[in-house]
Specification:
M1 Pyruvate Kinase, Domain 3, 2 domains, six-stranded mixed beta sheet
Amino acid sequence: MVVNANGRMITQRVEPKLALIEVEFPDEAFSESWDSSSDSYMVVKAPGMDMLKVSLSKPRDMVEHISIWNWNGSALDEGAKAAQWFSNYLGKTSRLVRFDPASQSRTTDPDYANGYKTMFSDEYPFMLISQGSLDALNKMLKEPIPINRFRPNILVEGCGPFSEDLWKEIKINKFTFYGVKLCSRCKIPTINQETGIIGSEPTETLKGFRSDEILLLNKKPQGQVYVGQNLVCKDCFTCDRGDVIKVGDPVYILQQLSSTAEAAA
């Protein structure tokens, strides 16, 4: 996560040019038996910037007073070189920090997912969207958009548009996931991830059929639009390092709601 001089998170909401940053990991980092070494690096690239290499070995130094939303804690500091790179790119004092699960804990909202944890993700560790939902939305837009506008870490296909609204329990590989909350969308889906330019879509179109006023008839409208479902993993506390879900895994719906009006949001 990139933070400002006060240790506060910096996201595309404030700095849309973060969308233009590309991150690369060594291919072997995705193998089940891999472990970082002094020769392992994350490569960071951005327009007009020299390539930045960040060691994947655990940093030694900690930064205090790191904050994301209402969470405050400490984080591992990725060093002066990374700090200077991001400061130059964003034009303001910045640092790159890494979550340290050995010393820090960040819980999910207990009103929706009591007893679960996340790291530097917005609120929950997983967010699922279906290809059917994106396809349905794109049919309404003058210019279709790619899935990276919504940034899911699980994308499924083979179901109807917005079917994921109703999923309360699913199984992928040997893992059980719980759908805990419809994902309310901020301004980031309006940021073109190839140019960093902010527009009005798809939010304007989503207001017409995916607003809380339309979907959640038994709740007071808050002016939100929803795409995707936030998830937690039942098995996250017992997973081994090599346990993975992968492209092509079947998705089994174990429990679902009868209507979107029953969904948490």
